[in-house]
């Protein structure tokens, strides 16, 4: 197993989105694309708004996750942990992408709450904007973490039931 550069993973994630995970491994890229599609499907079914700028903001999330995955990978290789041999298996990639899915949901919910609150405040509805900002946004993030967390638990149960999710530490 050879170590990879977390900065390169972050830059590729920022530029290419889920396809940037090809640097880490094809399994990670495939499952990052799958997580993105699952996220888009859930948001479409629930009929939440999709501001056009949101897709570009998610590139920062892909960059952060690429950096985090490579950092965990390098730490496992350095520590010669028994899990290091299995870094290129679907189970590890599934664990990483289940965490990405939850992160996407929470990130989206938080940004949507801030966006809605800002629109309300700028339109003169300061009280409603403040309520959305201080009550609605945290509630939306919490519900989003529950919904996407349950989906992620299912992914972990199917793909990595015998392993502890090292990416959630």
Radius of gyration: 17 Å
**Integer count of domains:** 1
Coarse morphology: elongated
The number of strands is 0
What is the structural class?
mainly alpha
Any low-confidence stretches, pLDDT <50, length ≥5? none
Mean pLDDT rating: 89
| Amino- and carboxy-terminal Cα gap | 22 Å
Percent strand equals under 5%
Summarize the main sheet.
Answer: none
Estimate the helix proportion, in percent: over 70%
Number of helices: 5
What pattern of helices and strands is seen along the backbone? HHHHH
Notes on the protein architecture:
74% of the residues lie in helices and 0% in strands. The chain has five helices and no strands. The protein starts with 5 loop residues before the first helix and ends in a 10-residue tail after the last helix.
List keywords for this structure.
single chain; 74% helix; 169 residues
In short:
The protein has helices spanning 6-16, 26-46, 54-79, 90-122, 126-159. It is an all-alpha fold and 169 residues long. It has one domain (6-162).
